[in-house]
Structures are given as C-alpha cells and as structure tokens.
Inverse folding.
C-alpha cells in the first residue's frame, strides 16, 4: 500500500483542507430590464432569455364574483 513517508505539518493539512472553499456565483445584469441575474439562466424579473420571452409574466385572474 502506498503510504506517506513523512507526517505532514498542520499548516500543510490546513492548506489541503482549504481547497473546498468555493467562490461566489458570478452575476450578470439582464439586458432587458437591467436587474441582476445568473448567467445562462432566465431573468426572474422579466422572464427573458437571449432576447426572447420565455416566461410570460403571471397575470392575476380575478375570481368571478357570484351573484
Ligand atoms: Zn430581465
């Protein structure tokens, strides 16, 4: 079995364990409305992606009043 020849220092151990830290996701601004959005995702604010309307805005339907 391959084994380490020498014990690694606590500093080296810490450097190895520091690799999991991930960077913050990059944020682009929507060309349609200017709101911040994630790249390669539909804009949550206006529902546009690549100049096309993907998600039409939700239109609240008024409940019919019963007479
Ligand atoms: Zn937008």
């Amino acid at each position: 079995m391959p084994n380490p020849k020498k014990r690694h220092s606590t500093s080296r151990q810490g450097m190895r364990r520091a690799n999991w830290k991930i960077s913050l996701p990059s944020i682009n601004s929507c060309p349609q409305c200017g709101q911040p959005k994630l790249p390669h995702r539909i804009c949550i604010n206006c529902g546009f992606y690549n100049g096309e309307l993907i998600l039409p805005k939700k239109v609240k339907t008024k409940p019919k009043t019963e007479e």
Summary: The first strand starts at residue 28 and ends at 29. Residues 10-17 form the longest helix (8 residues). The mean pLDDT is 83. Residues 26-58 form one domain.
